[in-house]
């Protein structure tokens, strides 16, 4: 339990406004109610603890994916339900998501690389789900992976906005949910209607190229 209590202590300090880079082992130990030397029984240093938090973040998102798999197979309701499940997960783990935001924007290179790997894994797993549910039957697996990468990027941006909102203002949270759902719907509608744009030739005018682009995204 001490290992988890040390990790929880870091997240509590971050949720109270501290930056991960400024948190000392002594502060973590004090918050956990243990002596500083107890920290080293579980972690070599703060970065070692940070990698464990990245693992916890990844496991949590995989649980969210498993939960969404149990929802309807229709794209429209599935998107909204998935966003609601994700928002609830963020609100229940604000410290962890604040930590991830700090790592993405200013963590060490190895930590940023670890987070990017986890987000890529999430996009690949989401692509596998989309293929399994046959949600984009006319797209190649490669194109599906591009679409799910856009989904992950969109949700990552939503997370930053969500963390800035107060849980006591459900109306603003609902507006953010609606905006995110619309953004994801645009991604899926665009992907479902995707048509490759021909390589530009002297005969392909700029106006024709723009018209093809609008057609490709479903306008």
TrEMBL record:
Gene3D superfamilies: Homeodomain-like, Tetracycline Repressor, domain 2. SUPFAM superfamilies: Homeodomain-like. The keyword Transcription regulation applies. GO terms for molecular function: DNA binding. Residues 24-43 bind DNA. Residues 1-61 form the HTH tetR-type domain. It comes from the Bacteria. The keyword Transcription regulation applies. Keywords: DNA-binding, Transcription, Transcription regulation. This is Transcriptional regulator. It comes from Oleiphilus messinensis.
